[in-house]
């Protein structure tokens, strides 16, 4: 009982100290400096320890700009692996626990999807297909798919899974293997909305948080373990994260979410021919495990791997296990 009291007191004092620190910082800076600094360190980590380089590709006479992190020294002996993130920040923040290991086995191509991170478009289209075409256009310009030929594997998580599936459908000669992690591919409009509404509130607020409370809800829905840290993070830090990740293109991100949630799916999900690895956390509260089994039954050339005691954010909760599954699947003949 006494120890719990000490913990609560410590948390209270820590929050006070951090709030005072924020007040001092705001005297000199009018932007979210803490997250900016963290983001800069992530860039340094990608550059120095993972041998990744930032590249920006312009498409359609500058109408669309796609930002990539790509392997600095590509090797012919290594397969090309494209990594597609979901909602919840840019590619650096979502793949920080994975890139070091994966960069040792693959030539990596890691885009920020359009309206995430440094990618942007003047095109009013908010469909999954425009995301897929933007990524493929960027890959072609980077020489990843010379002449539109084959040779890439795509690892995708959550929202990125919709984009990867569309790529595999439109460009079957280009995409050789597919890894789909925790993605609602094939969900009907009603199913997607129903699953998100189980957690209360507006679905768009869950995907594109505006307040620290919204962001805490997104994290708690996405993860099964390590949730206690969310209660320790002061509101001003979460507000800074929101400002950096969501405010610049908030309207566009909301429109993407609306398109994803409200668009009518095809009566029958197209069956793709690529070998597909499906990975799911057994505690996924966004897209329940039953959907993983349904997707596996739909795709004859697929296999399912279930990670125990893991939620929707497999890339954060079980990155080593996920990396091992991706590596063994893509490198297997």
UniProtKB/TrEMBL annotation:
AB hydrolase-1 domain: residues covered: 79-319
One Pfam family per UniProt: Abhydrolase_1
Gene3D superfamilies according to UniProt: alpha/beta hydrolase
InterPro entries: AB_hydrolase_1, AB_hydrolase_fold, Meta-cleavage_hydrolase
Top-level taxon in the UniProt lineage: Eukaryota
Record-given protein name: AB hydrolase-1 domain-containing protein
